[in-house]
Automatic annotation (TrEMBL):
It comes from Hyphomonas hirschiana VP5. Residues 134-161 form a coiled coil. This is Polyhydroxyalkanoate synthesis repressor PhaR. Residues 42-81 form the PHB accumulation regulatory domain. Keywords: Coiled coil. The keyword Coiled coil applies.
Amino acid sequence: MSDLVREGQDFEVRDAKTGEDLTRQVLTQIIFEHETKGQGALPLNFLRQLIGFYGGGAQAYLPSFLEMSMNSFSQAQKEWRKAANPMGLFEAQTRRNMVMFEQAMKMFMPGVAPTRSAAEEPSAGGQVPSNPFMEYQAEALAAMQEQMEAIQKQLADLSRKE
């Protein structure tokens, strides 16, 4: 059952005779087994505080707070995994470089645009997926592109005046 949880499978455990839902007890037992095998993920102070909330006024709010906290942590973990994939970083940066190169080609040689295979196409929306480590570079690139466009406009205006 522990593997099912890690795979993201939802399940219910019911008593065969009474039909009582035993899911909470089974999941708690899995946590207990991991904690006793030295695979503890729950700090002692957390456990003490958790026990302290039983029977108190905050007990009603604790489940939703813990669920939101775990969802937030899970989302952050997904982002960390994406960012920690070096090939993914390299691949995404290569795609960004190709897009930037093509944009530069279009600016300096209007009407000439390189062709791409389907595998080289950016994701839906025409954008290469962002990466937390590359956001600053993308913003800097956008600022440079705006500056280049402004310079091109100024050059075009100057050439018309001559």
